[in-house]
Amino acid sequence: MTDPDTASGLVIVDKPGGWTSHDVVARVRRLARTRRVGHAGTLDPMATGVLVVGIGKATRLLGHLALTEKGYDATIRLGATTNTDDAEGEITATASAAEVGDAALAAGVAALTGRIEQVPPQVSAIKVNGERAYKRARAGEDVALKARPVTVSAFTVTAVRRTDDFLDVDASIACSSGTYIRALARDLGAALGCGGHLTALRRTRVGPYHLDRARTLDELAADLAVLPIGDAVAAAFPRRDVSAEDARKVVHGGRLPAAGIGPGPVGVFGPDGTLLALVEEQGQGAKPLAVFAG
Fold it and tell me: Where is the Pseudouridine synthase II N-terminal domain (predicted)?
């Protein structure tokens, strides 16, 4: 095993279809020769694209990175509903989408753009009375999940294809953490009266990390490209450079005076440019969220 601190950083993976996020983490553990590996934001097995993986001390960043905005390219099939809201489930109902016109489609998309209340799919990892919803749903239980506020900042239709009674809609979506693209497909179909489900999903962005930075697992096996933790923080969060005195303070878990930076996490760097911590301002002070130096 390598010392995980020597390899701390992010690996931006282009996840292949058919792999779980845990499968990818297991593969990166073998490549990095450390068990201290995690990921920010789960992708379903059907989905491909950007999966941010943290190694060593960078695992402390993952919970904060998971809260950043994400981008997706999706294909929604109108005209059929499934029990998982995607193509991996069983079709539970069909209704022709042949009469869905461009205006109706545009209105349906507009209604799902902005700040909305979204009910997560029954087959999801959300816990209900201590048990994952998908386990209850697969046991035949009708799982009632509460609607949650999410923000869909962009929902742009890029192509439309008609096949028999189906309407396949390609779209680019930017949304807040916790948004289910499967649920958008389901709700768009419901609003149009024909049902809908997700047939393809590719995540194009997690915060500042785009597909052009992502590497396939085969590419990573040949060259494990690790983005240094300091560079990762500088790319994802506002930066604050501090004096030697404040550096000593924050490394030991002390609060810094507020600097009017935020809201949200701020990367603190010492006089020599070394990443020291993530902090978050609260009132007149800045409280450490994670300390990386010392």
Answer: 29-181
